[in-house]
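Researcher: Structure for this, please.
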Amino acid sequence: MRKKIVAGNWKMNLGIQEGVQLVNDIIAKLPVFQTHQHVIFCTPFTHLQKVNEVINQTKNSSLHTGAQNCHDKTSGAYTGEISIAMLQELGVNSVIIGHSERRQYFQESNEFLKNKVDALLANKMHVLFCCGEPLEVREAAQQNAWVEKQLQESIFHLSAETIQQGITIAYEPIWAIGTGVTASTAQAQEMHAFIRSLLQATYDEDTAQNISILYGGSCNAANAAELFACEDVDGGLIGGAALKAESFLPIIEAMK
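Model: Predicted structure, token format:
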């Protein structure tokens, strides 16, 4: 059975104490998890240690912390960057790579993201790899080719074993991030099924069926259950709705 995952991407939001309170509020009302269900709190770097301490106190192996980015180099003159080893010291085991905002605002190329993926996997870290198309590509009906290129150039060089063990894919239609516009259930399922077909064509059926694919475009409490009911949607990478317990908990509860 594929892992079902809900990951909250806080982006550059909340103070440390606000973040700790949010996690405590969520933990207080969490449903009972099955072994294949997981929640990842992807907080700002400054919050990771405190949030991880809260999670560790629960002894709940379904709860994890994740970083929103990292550098591929182990150390050096990279002002403002965070290394994988620094994250590991904080107990972090997952990192978002290739989020559309990193690609857009910091010009992160597919090749640069490949380097990050390789460095993380070499250090036994888990990668939440983001892919997705902007509005103009969707309107030109070129979204499949766009996403395929992202996957081919950043993660499809990996072996079947490595990609199964270390990668979760998050499809994020850029035109639906933070806009309040959500891909229809049919659109989400169509792209998730396409990504799974690429995994099968590149690797094999076993690999295609063992990799979780998350939806990451304005998923919220109102639409999560419908989206997660799609055959190839295995959870969500959640932005704004992850910043309040009352909006994040229903999304977690929609995970089956």
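Researcher: Any notable elements?
Model: The chain has twelve helices and eight strands. The chain has a mean pLDDT of 95.
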